[in-house]
Design a protein that fits this description.
Layout lengths: L9 E11 L4 E12 L4 E5 L6 H8 L7 E6 L2 E2 L5 H7 L4 E4 L11 H11 L6 H10 L15 H15 L3 E5 L7 H18 L2 E5 L3 H6 L2 E6 L2 E2 L4 E2 L5
The structure holds adenosine-5'-diphosphate (ADP) and magnesium ion.
The site of adenosine-5'-diphosphate has 12 residues, from strand 2 and helix 1.
């Protein structure tokens, strides 16, 4: 058996992201280095404005760094053009954002079916309904997404990602707007899919329960990683 460590799915090296507006410059990330092994569950924590969403957007191939390298399976995401990044996004890497985009003219179950199709998978309507049930939205399957609350939209977005079955799930505060019972259910769905598929999970969170269930907590402070190797067991 090969006992060497698996090669990382993500290898971030000295990643810097500066936002330049007309006059002001904001340094959101000041040199982040981070390796993620396949199947790992990482919680990203830190105060508001510390760079968490910026980091996630870069790892999702939705944005490019100002400097540094974002290796994803040996490919530098920052060097890919938008069409190439688009092919990775959605299929290999799925992201659930704070402000979620669903197709508002479609019903929830249609959104879930479409998400799978866009990722090159085809699922039955029953499978789509099962996925919606797993995030507590069975009774909303035929509703249009613009008729849902913020928390429901976020769960619907998670259902779409689960239908797409990416190898990597990135989530930005996906349990933030949920009551603790629903948050626990949603987290349960994610961890179940992870154990079934070996999916890598990276969740930005303020929720101590999420952080406790992660393999590792990566804490950001003012654009820097301050605790890269704090094991989940050290928090318990
Ligand atoms: P967090 O998710 O931890 O709250 P963000 O990554 O959203 O942090 O933001 C980090 C810093 O970058 C903040 O100072 C924020 O105001 C700034 N920032 C984020 N997005 C933009 C943007 N699109 N344009 C300009 N500044 C931004
Ligand atoms: Mg954020």
């Amino acid at each position: 058996m090969d006992m060497t460590a698996p090669s990382p799915v993500f290898e971030l090296t000295d990643v810097i992201r500066v936002y330049r507006e007309t006059e002001v410059e904001t340094i959101a990330l000041r040199g982040v280095s981070l390796d993620v092994v396949p199947g790992e569950f990482i919680a990203v924590t830190g105060r508001s404005g510390s760079g968490k969403s910026t980091l996630l957007g870069l790892m999702a191939a939705a944005d490019r760094p100002t400097a540094g390298r974002i290796g994803f399976r040996g490919v530098d995401l920052g060097r890919l053009d938008e069409p190439a990044r688009g092919r990775i996004r959605g299929r290999q890497i799925g992201i659930v954002f704070q402000a979620q985009n669903l197709f508002s003219i479609l019903s929830l179950v249609e959104n879930v079916e479409l998400a799978a199709r866009l990722a090159g998978r085809s699922i039955s309507r029953d499978d789509a309904l099962d996925i919606l049930a797993s995030v507590g939205l069975a009774l909303r399957a035929d509703h249009r997404s613009d008729a849902l609350s913020g928390g429901e939209q976020q769960r619907a977005a998670l259902a779409c990602i689960l239908a797409a079955r990416p190898d990597v799930l990135l989530g930005d505060e996906i349990t933030g707007e949920l009551d603790s019972h629903t948050a626990d259910e949603v987290l349960g769905v994610v961890t179940k899919m992870r154990s079934e598929t070996g999916m890598t999970v990276i969740l930005v969170t303020h929720d101590a329960d999420v952080a406790r269930r992660a393999d590792r907590v990566v804490r950001l402070d003012d654009g820097r990683v301050v605790s890269p190797r704090l094991a989940a067991s050290a928090l318990a």
